[in-house]
Amino acid sequence: MLQIESLNQFYGESHTLWDLDIGFAEGECTCVMGRNGVGKTTLMGCIMGLLPIRSGRMTFQGEDLARLPAERRAGLGIGYVPQGRQIFPLLTVEENLRIGLPARRDRSRQIPRFIFELFPVLEQMRGRRGGDLSGGQQQQLAIGRALVLDPTLLILDEPTEGIQPNIVHEIGDIIRRLMDDLGLTVILVEQKLPFARRVGDRFALLDRGRLKAQGPMADLGEDLVREYLTV
Ligand SMILES: Nc1ncnc2c1ncn2[C@@H]1O[C@H](COP(=O)(O)OP(=O)(O)OP(=O)(O)O)[C@@H](O)[C@H]1O
């Protein structure tokens, strides 16, 4: 569904992503993993068009992504839940959700009903400010906001960071439901190994900007964990 070939990215003189080749298969959840600072968020920024790339190809359902500005990429059906959630604290829950509506392909001005079915707390707190929500509720709002666009691919950057364990479990269930009920493909940046193993179908392991291994989650063995994940 999304194919990345020979991707190189620099921050100024600093070469951050090196000749990355990664494929993301339709209908699967691929966990992008690796220690802090290896380039996971940078890779997501490149996919979304928020960071310029130096060279390489990115194709999404046959479209050449690298040539499209960020707003067109979202319109192709790529939803993005950034690290740290980045909801608007002074806007209400409803206003946060409405932000994505103008980019919908069908021009609908209605927040899709299934978002409130998936996250009942967002309906209960519809008129409250985003900043008044708990961390877990804000994460649900950030996911809901990305879903407003009706994406076929959803990218989540560390959705469990700083969230209570019971809510982490719930977020895992929601991701699987999005895949089973809506047929979404998911890219999940994740550092928590048990969560990645529970939710992911495949993994891609980065180290210092390079891809070190990828494959079915069952192949993420102890040797790889020790070498590239344990701190
Ligand atoms: N805006 C920036 N300017 C310069 N260097 C940056 C910038 N953003 C990130 N970097 C550097 O690029 C490298 C990759 O960072 P990135 O945030 O992509 O890693 P990560 O794997 O997502 O880390 P984390 O798990 O901590 O979020 C790091 O060395 C980081 O210091």
TrEMBL record:
PANTHER family: HIGH-AFFINITY BRANCHED-CHAIN AMINO ACID TRANSPORT ATP-BINDING PROTEIN, HIGH-AFFINITY BRANCHED-CHAIN AMINO ACID TRANSPORT ATP-BINDING PROTEIN LIVF. GO terms for biological process: L-amino acid transport. Residues 2-231 form the ABC transporter domain. It comes from Halochromatium glycolicum. CDD domains: ABC_TM1139_LivF_branched. This is Urea ABC transporter ATP-binding subunit UrtE. The gene is urtE. Keywords: Amino-acid transport, ATP-binding, Nucleotide-binding, Transport. GO terms for molecular function: ATP binding; ATP hydrolysis activity; branched-chain amino acid transmembrane transporter activity. Belongs to the ABC transporter superfamily. It comes from the Bacteria.
